[in-house]
Fold:
Amino acid sequence: MSEIFDLYNEKMEPLGETALRGDLIPRGKYHLVVHILSVNFENKVLITLRSPAKPYGGLWEITGGSVITGETPVEAAVRELREETGLKALPQALDYRGQLLFKSSAHNHITLFYLFRADFQEDSIVLQPGETEAARLVYPAEIEQMAKKGEFISFIYQRAKAFYPDIFGEAMP
Structure:
């Protein structure tokens, strides 16, 4: 079954319209996406390896996905975290870090960024078949090295540095 997304304007006001995954989103309309950086009490970041069948397949990333119809961004972040990693977070455990508006000829979305700090280890992770192939806990400096080698999705790394400066040691541009 295809995912259905609510559409919003640039101010994240609902337009009362929807789109199916894969549809072209018209100019001036956006669907919402969430990214969640999960950090354990050893200051290690949870990264997952994308399924080879997905865009950017075979590369490492942080948890994320689209907000589906009827969900708030926080609800989507909780759901994506649980679905992709098995980690259970209460909405109040997610620290909102900001948003980024992305426009292109084929894909318009607003990405909202959250930080999840909790006591978890690699053996706590339950992967979602078809979405993620592996999981690792790594220090932020390791992610930088992986990005330089082309093993980590570069634009995700750049956004992580910008939205989680306390983790990656970078300031917002």
